[in-house]
Amino acid sequence: MSAPAKLPPFDPADPLGIDDLLSDEDLAIRDTVRSWAADRVQPHIAEWYEKGEAPIRELALELGGIGALGMSLTGYGCAGATAVQYGLACLELEAADSGIRSLVSVQGSLAMYAIWKYGSDEQKERWLPGMAAGEIIGCFGLTEPDHGSDPAGMRTYAKKDGTDWVLSGRKMWITNGSVAGVAVVWAQTDDGSGGIRGFVVPTDTPGFSAPEIKHKWSLRASVTSELVMDEVRLPADAVLPGVTGLKGPLSCLSHARYGIVWGAMGAARASFESAVEYAKTREQFDRPIGGFQLTQAKLADMAVELHKGVLLAHHLGLRMDAGRLRPEQVSFGKLNNVREAIEICRTSRTILGANGISLEYPVMRHATNLESVLTYEGTVEMHQLVLGKALTGLDAFR
């Protein structure tokens, strides 16, 4: 009878041994993104957040340089990474800041994905290489001032005028809008082709403007804008030929939501790690507060939810790589992981006490960012209803 194998030591940073599920290439990509974020974001993020501005164009070029833009797409200068590898990148980026992950998500999973999935060969050749390199920033115009969870009611409208399209309307809460060189805009149409169509709009087209939204208390290191289309005239080949109806924008959102499932765990991890380090060094009653039972209970509960969330994200990534990931499963992941990430940030804040509200620590910044992540790309209620319909077969939307 052979001797039992020696167990590996317990790793507080990876208590479930999740790294054992990752390939060497997975780990190398994760470490590359983690190193970039540590070097280029972490030293400056508190200042960017406080000022409400960040060097988005400069960061986009650097992210393009490490292959992080459109990284799960193939061809046109894209990295062709797996879904798991893309998820790991999202986790590391959001561990730095949700706004930086949002830049990458909107660029790759919304704007680039829409063109890659539904665009013509000419549209792909024109836009995707520059977007993959970070030379062109993209945005995605779906949400409107009066239509968020119900995009079918959008009022942005494109009408035919000869062979041209004339686009008019407004979009709201658009990440990257004011720095974008191209916008993918969804609009109602009158050509009998199925209602909603997507349009690839160069942002220097007359009649297009993107005023930046100021006075935000969340995602302050991200550019958020309104898109205004005032009789924007576009050629016939501006329309995305590969899709009609809501299937187009909703499939793009599902791709982006998948990245959020991973990203939220990055924000949670950064807050949790901050709480652990603080608990080991902050002394009250003549000993570190990490030695008290109530503090350890908080840390244990947070660790359980954090690493369960990473396991869930990894499982969904494997399903996406196998072509078996359903939108309802993405809703499952976003609903759970963002909700748990916010709770981890809030509990971490209680461990840090008054210091938890200071930008010297990342906790409150992550918590306020996650308040936006909680409701964008599908509110809690919408994902609950998606799952409710899937579980019961009964549609509560209408």
Layout: helices, strands, pairs:
Elements: H1 24-40, H2 45-51, H3 56-65, H4 83-96, H5 98-118, H6 121-132, E1 138-141, E2 157-161, E3 164-175, E4 182-189, E5 196-202, E6 208-209, E7 224-234, H7 247-281, E8 283-284, E9 287-288, H8 293-321, H9 327-352, H10 363-375, H11 380-392
Parallel strand pairs: 1-4, 2-4
Antiparallel strand pairs: 2-3, 3-7, 4-5, 6-7, 8-9
Measured by DSSP, the beta-strand proportion falls in 5-15%
Number of helices: 11
Tell me the span between the first and last alpha carbons: 65 Å
Largest sheet: 7 strands, mixed
Secondary-structure element pattern, one letter each: HHHHHHEEEEEEEHEEHHHH
Low-confidence stretches: none
How would you characterize the overall build of this protein?
It contains 11 helices and 9 strands. Strand 2 (157-161) and strand 3 (164-175) form a beta hairpin. Strands 1, 2, 3, 4, 5, 6 and 7 form a 7-stranded mixed beta sheet that branches. Strands 8-9 form a two-stranded antiparallel sheet. Helix content is 49%, strand content 13%. The chain has 398 residues and is α+β, with helices and mostly antiparallel strands. The chain has helices spanning 24-40, 45-51, 56-65, 83-96, 98-118, 121-132, 247-281, 293-321, 327-352, 363-375, 380-392, and strands at 138-141, 157-161, 164-175, 182-189, 196-202, 208-209, 224-234, 283-284, 287-288. It starts with 23 loop residues before the first helix and ends in a 6-residue tail after the last helix. Helix 1 (24-40) packs parallel to helix 4 and helix 5 (98-118) runs antiparallel to helix 6. It is globular, with a radius of gyration of 22 Å.
